[in-house]
Amino acid sequence: MRVLLCLLLVLCTPLAAEDRTEVDVELFLAVDVSRSMQPFELEIQRRGYAAALASPEVQSAIARGPLGRIAITYVEWAGVWDQRTVVPWTVISTPAEAQAIADTLTAQFDEGLRRTSISAALIHAAASIESNAYMGLRRVIDVSGDGPNNMGLGVTTARDQVLAQGITINGLPLMTRDDSLFSRWDIPDLDAYYTACVIGGIGAFMIPVTDWAEFEAAVKRKLVLEISALPDRLYRAQAPAPYNCRVGEEIWERNRAIFAEP
After folding, report:
1. In what order do the strands lie in the sheet with 70-77?
2. What CATH code is carried by the domain that includes residue 160?
3. Strand positions, DSSP E, the chain
4. Number of structural domains, the chain?
5. pLDDT tens profile 65-89
6. Which of 54, 204, 237, 245 pairs as cysteine with 102 (C-beta 3.0–4.6 A)?
């Protein structure tokens, strides 16, 4: 038992600064795989991130950094307890390393998971950044999603906790439209929701995707900006107008009878 407790302490205790590998940025890619995402959309996401990471533009951005290397992890998320690590924390400093991650992302395609908890994804991402083996000049959570938070901690509470740790949150709101049953959970101004309720921190920005044909290019642009620390002025976070950041929870309450037991 004593051995087990010692092991747990080692695993749960963050590394000291001198024991961490320095990188230009620690980039946590938090990718929505909630049930509202259809199988072809899940595949588009994996392939889009793979292509972007292996692209010459992203490689050039990495090479131009002071250290010439970044650390990333790719985690898919849905409900409060659903965070699925596809790529653990890994250094990218060469095209070969980027291609290896791209190959991992496209090796197989997993099913979606239930509910939407942006707040849990943010808290999980921050804990992962704090406990990894890297020390970045910047620390960024890149969160994508096709709907508002509807489960768990309030999204603004989670956001503020993460920002207090000196971590920037950027957003990729997926504003594609479909006629599926799950469209009932959509909101028409998801970009405004992300600006007011999700993103924040130094240089925070979001880039909306309105058509899946735009996805790869949007991810590539976003990664270049995040790695280079040059936020796009067009999408930089402005002081948001008053917004109901509990809109997702309210939509869930109105529709939860769909899932009630007969």
Report:
1. 83-92, 70-77, 21-32, 134-145, 168-173
2. 3.40.50.410
3. 21-32, 70-77, 83-92, 134-145, 168-173
4. 1
5. 999 999 999 999 998 888 999 999 9
6. 54
